[in-house]
Amino acid sequence: MESSLVENDIRVYLRSECAVFKKTSDKWGGLSNMAPGYPLCVNGIPIRTAEALYQACRFPNDPEIQQKIIFQTSPMTAKMVGKPFRERTRPDWEKKRIVIMKWCLRVKLVQNLEMFSSLLKETRDFPIVEHSDKDAFWGAKPIDLNVLKGVNALGRLLMELRSVVVANSDLEFAAVAPPSIDNFILLGERIGQVSSSDTMPNICTQESFFAV
Questions:
Q1: What distance in Å separates the CA atoms of residue 72 and residue 210, rounded to the nearest whole number?
Q2: For a Cys staple, 49 with which of 75, 147, 177, 196, CB 3.0–4.6 Å?
Q3: What is d(CA 149, CA 85) in angstroms, rounded to the nearest whole number?
């Protein structure tokens, strides 16, 4: 599951020629990891957004932090709740974060295939760009009203995924294997293959899991 993305490869994008998203309410907002309506299920554990899954992967040795992240109702809160514990982030995070993000996007696709693949295809061959005012790595920052500049790592991973979707039939997306990295754990269990069928209510019921 390696990516051709280079971390210091900064690019310039013309907003008018791209599929740009910033807010989840934007036309392409469903591409955001923060977007609601794309529920996930990993190891039988329901997770509300791709953002929560990604953030939980920071802390394989701390199931209590992972659980706190997963239980947040807001994806932004799920992102922020781990900040006080950043020193406990897996030591190889900077090297592995791209492949982990790529896996999270694939899980989002497999478990929300019709809706997410349709959205990716609707972007046609436009560059996909996450507009971010603060993060020029995962997104691209505005230089002026029509120019964005940054690595745009999330947008480029989405473009890679779009290429796979366009080139393959839906049958290719029945399951996704975990990345080949050490210590890939969620709530004390090694993360296994994620299947589209894992979202079935009898396997992964969000209401009962999140009940207080």
A1: 9
A2: 75
A3: 30
Coil/strand/helix, residue 135: coil
CA 200 to chain centre: 21
- Number of Cβ within a 10 Å radius of residue 45: 20
148: nearest Cα among 6, 14, 9: 14
Pairing of strands 175-176, 194-195: antiparallel
Dist. CA 92–CA 89, nearest whole Å: 8
Q: pLDDT tens digits for 131-160?
A: 999 999 999 999 999 999 999 999 999 999
Give CA–CA dist 89/78, Å, rounded: 15
Q: Which residues contact 169 (CB under 8 A, 6 or more apart)?
A: none
Q: What is the largest CA-CA distance in the chain?
A: 50
Phi, psi of 72 (to 5 degrees): -70, 140
CATH numbers and ranges of domains, the chain: 11-209 (1.10.357.40)
Check residue 195 and give its pLDDT. 94
Tokens 């972007």 correspond to 123
Q: Is 88 exposed, middle or buried (0-12, 13-18, 19+ CB in 10 A)?
A: middle
pTM for the complete prediction?
A: 0.92
Distance CA 204, CA 212 (A): 17
Tell me how many degrees the CA angle 104-106-111 measures, rounded to the nearest 5: 100
State how beta strands 19-21 and 185-186 pair. unpaired
